[in-house]
Amino acid sequence: MTAYATEAPTAWTAACPSARLRPDDGVAVLLPGGRQAALFRTRTGLYAVDNIDPFTGAAVLSRGIVGDRAGEPTVASPLLKNVFSLRTGLSLDDPAVRLDTWPVHDDGTTVRIGTEGTP
């Protein structure tokens, strides 16, 4: 299963075992170069967005509340409850704010995040 990607990645970073990522759960992943991603499995797909909440600067989005707004998969920050699209990273509360997103792939054993050539 592959999530949405805007560019084809040139490298994939192993994030976690497939069995570790349960539906509607998130995990924080340290990417090459020190960035953090929040990785989610929903009932509709796999998604990776920035783990840093742009409204607070805290690394908490992996602990956010996964949901759906009019068919759009979302995550709400556990601090201020700002909601972001998991597909696009766009804030649904402030359209001027957007999280970076990464392509995600699950080969049945390991979930991987596309890291080079993206975002």
From TrEMBL:
What region holds the Rieske domain? 13-113
Q: Which domain of life is it from?
A: Bacteria
Do the record's keywords include Protein biosynthesis? Answer: no
Report if keyword Metal-binding is assigned.
yes
Among InterPro entries, the record links this protein to: NirD, Rieske-like_NirD, Rieske_2Fe-2S, Rieske_2Fe-2S_sf
Sorted alphabetically, which keywords does the UniProt record give? Answer: 2Fe-2S, Iron, Iron-sulfur, Metal-binding, Nitrate assimilation, Oxidoreductase
- A Pfam family this chain is assigned to: Rieske_2
* GO BP term (any one): nitrate assimilation
Q: Which residues form the signal peptide?
A: none
Which GO molecular function annotation, any one, does this entry have? Answer: metal ion binding
Q: What's the name of the protein?
A: Nitrite reductase (NADH) small subunit
Tell me which species this is from.
Nocardiopsis flavescens
